[in-house]
Amino acid sequence: MKAVIQRVKSAELSANGKFKSKIKDGLLVLLGVAKGDTVKDAEILAKKTVNIRIFCDENDKMNLSVKDKNFEILSVSNFTLISDTKKGNRPYFGDALNPKEANELYNKFCSFLKTEIESSDLIKTGEFGADMEIKTSLSGPVTINLNSKDYNKEK
Length: 155
Description:
The chain is of the alpha/beta class. It has a single domain, classed as 3-Layer(bba) Sandwich (D-tyrosyl-trna(Tyr) Deacylase, Chain: A). It is built from three helices and eight strands; from the N terminus they run βββαββαβαββ. The chain has helices spanning about 40-50, 65-70, 100-115, and strands spanning about 1-15, 20-25, 25-30, 55, 60-65, 70-75, 125, 130-145. Strands 1, 2, 3, 6, 7 and 8 form a six-stranded mixed β-sheet that branches. The chain has a two-stranded antiparallel sheet with strand order 4-5. A hairpin with a 2-residue loop joins strand 1 (about 1-15) and strand 2. Helix 1 (about 40-50) packs parallel to helix 3.
């Protein structure tokens, strides 16, 4: 499971041409689910996302998390993160999990975010499988790539 998280001043999402959700200060999270990913991968990435310290403290050091700041998260499914570009110029998406199971794991990830941040009001979502448009105002910019396979699953 892969996530790209961006620190934002705001983000607004439309799905199939209709407004869906928006956040102010917080994180935009793009999540890709691959074959072989499990509920444990969703839990690992949710914990890392909520606790990663990429917001500045009073000394302008990145020492605070989205949870510390009580900021919002906009979580968006994005199968294109599970692309292979080693061969040729057209990305290969065959390693992405099938839509039904990917949606289930995406929803688990969002549930884990809500549990970790201890507030469902701070978590907004996209619309799985929809054609989405996201307008963002990046902060920093700060963009971090996370991969659940990089973290020890025993901890």
